[in-house]
Amino acid sequence: MHTHKLLYSLIIFIFSININAQVDLRNIEFSGKVLDKKGTAIEGVAVTDGYNIVITNHKGEYNLLSNPTAEFVYISIPSGYVIPMQENAPHYFHRISDKSKPKQRFDFTLEKSGLDENKHILIACADPQVGFDEEIPMLQEAVNDMKALVSRDYIGLSVHGVICGDIIAEISREPKFFEPIKSMFAETNIPFFYAVGNHDIDVNGRSNHYSKETFRRAAGPTYYSYNRGKVHYIVLDDVFFTARGYSSIGYLYEEQLCWLEQDLAFIPEGSTVVVSFHIPTYSPEARKGEFAKEEMNKVLQNRNALYKMLKPYKALILSGHEHYNENYQLADNLFEHVHAALCGIFWQAPYNSDGTPLGYAVYEFDGDNVKWFYKSVGKNKNYQFDSYLPGVDKHRPNAIIANVWNHDPQWKVYWYENGIRMGEMEQYRGWDPGVVNYVDKNKQNFRYKYIGAGPTEHLFKAEPLDKNAKIRIEVVDRFNNIYIGIPRKIE
């Protein structure tokens, strides 16, 4: 009898555990209005809980059927309206704090911008990756450079920014840095959106979802969209936590892809779409057809699903993660920019591992068209390459060398001897001599002993016919801008 009672109690206990562990899928109905500051309804605004998307009617009203797994109700900010800011970050969402009420109301109020957003500017950077107090002033220098550029060149234009992940070096260890970084970027008066990076996850989280809790508290949803002018912007979370420290894999999980399908369904085919996230979709290995050599933590594994969704659009992909600068023409309609790290070699050098200076990208939109350039911190915007005289590279002792960090196949690199154009320089894979020299001289002082120079494919070489000739290098970008440089010695 005692045994039967014990068995019965055990069954009840196990059943209770199962009930408590069940996911609560009771319906919650969200409703509300999207209005401007004068109380005028805004029709056609996308409202979402991260799973489903509905559109406001002519009264600005929406009704969204959801469930307690949702954490936010948020909008896709429409063109023509100011990006709302709160707590030093874009605020386009309401947090769902009480999930017990079956009906809840969330209203959104937007302010008309008064600017012609057809011409607007995007500043994109990646990997500020602050991990120590002394790195905050270094980041401040870069942020000040952005502010100065905008106040000098883009007065009266709509400007916003996106940070492609790795805001912090280790969010599990130093989450305190998120708020001062947000404050620093907000002080530019440029609204910056945030994408989650592999260093922005809680490595003690029990799953991919819970690893993003600290990020969501600081910045809001990990995937969302917004609009400026004729351009539709999307920020995604392609960092999938596998409980192996910061070595997450590049992956877009199904719920997010379903949301993305709905989001894009409201965008007319042929529109310009900009997608930002952390881990790139492509790699130098893929460019050579060596797909088996790609590492899961360095490239988006289900990239073809994303490419297929973007096929009807003129699309730009903006990513980071790799601490080098690279460009990929993935298709006629699809281009990826892998942004160099704002922190370079983890704040230990004024370069990234490939020789790209600390800096950020600037995208100038005019309707559906876009031009871009790389802006090095503390340098003129015409500083688009570095170059070296013969003798700096022991593997190519007779060659002049140019590092053209924002190069793509539509760029041209020429060398001149005594004012005469000699031809195009030859592209090759190698190491920037300036970075190699800097690392050799300073590595003993680096905080991390495993970092240093890395290979890149945006190097160019040529052997002058006249060793005593005056050499100059001319670089022509895809927009026919011409940059001139004189090769230098390395001190």
From TrEMBL:
SUPFAM superfamilies reported for this sequence: Carboxypeptidase regulatory domain-like (SSF49464), Metallo-dependent phosphatases (SSF56300)
Residue ranges of domain Calcineurin-like phosphoesterase in the record: 162-324
Domain of life: Bacteria
Gene Ontology MF terms: hydrolase activity
Domain Calcineurin-like phosphoesterase C-terminal: 336-483
Listed Pfam families: Metallophos (PF00149), MetallophosC (PF16370), MetallophosN (PF16371)
Domain (Calcineurin-like phosphoesterase N-terminal): residue spans on this chain: 32-110
Name of protein: Calcineurin-like phosphoesterase
